[in-house]
Amino acid sequence: MDLCAGRILRTHCGRQQDSQIEAFTGYRVAISITSNPNTPGIGLRLAHLAEMVATRPAAGWLEVHPENFLANPHAAELLTEVSLHYPISLHTVGISVGSANGIDHLHLKRVRGLADRLKPIFVSGHLAWSTYGNEYLNDLLPLPYNEESLQLVSTHISYVQDTLGQPYLIENPSSYVGFRSSTMKETDFLSEIVRRTGCQLLCDVSNVVVSAHNMVYDAYQYIDNFPADAIREIHLGGYTPEKDEATPGAELLIDTHAAAIADPSWDLYAYALRRFGPKPTLIEWDNEIPPLATLLDEAAHAGEIAQAIDASAEANRVAAR
């Protein structure tokens, strides 16, 4: 393992407890909701679940971690009601396609059961591993990018897709360490996974910003090399700067999902839309969760950026006629 760029692994905070479902007593607002997945959405966390049911604010779509609902009947019931009014996406944190021990079939079947109930527009997960034996780790751990990992991950993704009965979207990770045993770039690894399995991709733009800073590469070049034809979804989330204890004076960016989206992510997002075209965009916020209105404002800003790019592209098309 090469520890030259970042030497820490961070806790994943997707799983939440039932106590985080907050009561909301406001009045329900009847509004028209679009089902167009090319409009920005938000990650729905348990803290906002009751409020979403009660008020139905305008949002393009919602994404949830299914693991928060599989053993939580009350939350699952509320989510089912929400799904009547919004397109839902499932973003898994426990399938662990990079684990050498294989996929937990029972867990995957439970995710399939929830998917059958909610009819999600997407089911996605991470290019990472998070299980060891019978233990589930609260981390998304990295992989070397080589043929051995490629065979393992491809086999697991194919199995996941066969079990789910639909494409599985793989998200690019936030990186803090590299491996000397890696023989290919991350974008090449993702491209080959797509070729071998027919899976689709989730481009987390903020993860690109984080990884490019920590691993010292060009974020815009990464977007240029990303397999654009396979992208079905984009994520944006906040990160937190921290001192790099191994390199005095240096700074790491940590993918905490605990802050507003930073300007470098917004800038790279605009660049990505120009390259990829319009894509369903999701705002993530998992720690130090703000009021629901704050997430909706972030989603609205993403929509404004997308609309401006669409308008500019249309003006260029008209001028070229």
CATH topology: TIM Barrel
CATH class placement: Alpha Beta
Largest sheet: 8 strands, parallel, barrel
Can you count the helices? 9
Describe this structure in words.
With 321 residues, the chain is α/β, with parallel strands linked by helices. It has one domain (18-320): Divalent-metal-dependent TIM barrel enzymes (TIM Barrel, Alpha-Beta Barrel). The chain is 39% helix and 17% strand. It has nine helices and twelve strands. It has helices at 46-55, 73-82, 105-118, 147-164, 186-197, 205-215, 219-225, 263-276, 292-320; strands at residues 41-43, 62-64, 88-91, 122-126, 129-132, 135-141, 169-171, 200-204, 231-237, 240-243, 251-254, 281-284. An eight-stranded parallel β-barrel has the order 1-2-3-4-7-8-9-12. A two-stranded antiparallel sheet has the order 5-6. A two-stranded antiparallel sheet has the order 10-11. The longest helix is centred in the last third of the chain and has 29 residues, at 292-320. It is globular and about 45 Å long.
Compile the SSE list and pairings.
Elements: E1 41-43, H1 46-55, E2 62-64, H2 73-82, E3 88-91, H3 105-118, E4 122-126, E5 129-132, E6 135-141, H4 147-164, E7 169-171, H5 186-197, E8 200-204, H6 205-215, H7 219-225, E9 231-237, E10 240-243, E11 251-254, H8 263-276, E12 281-284, H9 292-320
Parallel strand pairs: 1-2, 1-12, 2-3, 3-4, 4-7, 7-8, 8-9, 9-12
Antiparallel strand pairs: 5-6, 10-11
Helix pairs in contact: 1-2, 4-5, 6-8, 7-8, 8-9
